């Protein structure tokens, strides 16, 4: 999905929010914001790109300017703590459910995790309400039948937000129980509040996925010209790619023919351009196979 007019102000607002995290004094933020806007203007005048690619360029520039590698560090820690509490509770409940009920619950938990996003203009979510979100969640486009028969399949997860990745463990465990082999691809470095390889052990990814592989980069998605060979090999050897979140949708929608794999997008459509692209109401939850 190429950048839309509505995306432009969103990417600016998110950068300003990141500067607020770093600098409490508004006067300290102004100079950095001007430099970011100048860089942004030059990008927009160039060849069309996806929002995921542009946000990556801008976030890298912000990190370089400020010297702060991870403006979301504390938020990510809180998201992981809350999600681990929910994970442990749901895992106990799953022991007493039949196969179909288990799958429905873990899909909802994985989807609800995508609500834990701090990188979208005019969107907020209370981390502590994630349990209620799982219980009330309605799936607008539901292709979760894709997970019914996964025995012998190599399923590769493209993980997204911190906290969300903890809840993705439940889906991975269910697919492993059904005979799939799972691999989690996680970022090498910080991008917004996304999970990184540094957190992987702490939040239990190695316990739930067959393998955990770094993308080798801090890009918002699996940019084919950047990712490590190990990541690329995992991606192109997949039977099914589970792409979590909006950034992966934005990018993979453009390169899906190159990758040429079955992809299931799992996300909450938290902005109008994504909702329009998926033909769903704003803030809808989607499990969509392409």
CATH class of the largest domain: Alpha Beta
Principal-axis shape: globular
Reported for the largest beta sheet, the result is:
7 strands, mixed
CATH H-level name of the largest domain... which superfamily? Uncharacterised protein PF01937, DUF89, domain 3
Q: Could you spell the SSE succession in H and E letters?
A: HHHHHHEEHEHEHEHEHE
**Mean pLDDT across every amino acid position:** 97
Please report the distance between the alpha carbons of the first and last residues: 14 Å
The number of distinct helices, counting runs of at least 4 residues, comes to 11
Rg computed from alpha carbons, rounded to a whole number of angstroms: 18 Å
Number of domains: 2
* Approximate helicity band: 40-55%
User: What's the multimeric state?
Assistant: single chain
Broad structural category: alpha/beta
Low-confidence stretches: none
**Strand ordering within the main sheet:** 1-7-6-5-2-3-4
Strand content: 5-15%
Care to count the β-strands? 7
- CATH topology type of the largest domain: Rossmann fold
CATH architecture descriptor text of the largest domain: 3-Layer(aba) Sandwich
Give the secondary structure arrangement, pairings included.
Layout: H1 5-22, H2 26-44, H3 51-66, H4 73-94, H5 99-113, H6 130-136, E1 139-142, E2 154-158, H7 164-177, E3 181-186, H8 205-208, E4 211-214, H9 229-236, E5 240-244, H10 246-259, E6 262-268, H11 272-278, E7 285-289
Parallel strand pairs: 1-7, 2-3, 2-5, 3-4, 5-6
Antiparallel strand pairs: 6-7
Helix pairs in contact: 1-2, 1-3, 2-3, 4-7, 5-6, 5-7
Give an overview in words:
The protein has two domains: 5-66; 73-289, Rossmann fold. A seven-stranded mixed β-sheet has the order 1-7-6-5-2-3-4, with helices on both faces. It starts with a helix and ends with a strand. Helix 1 packs antiparallel against helix 2 (26-44), helix 4 runs parallel beside helix 7 (164-177) and helix 5 packs antiparallel against helix 7. It has eleven helices and seven strands. It is globular, with a radius of gyration of 18 Å. By secondary structure, it is of the alpha/beta class. The mean pLDDT is 97.
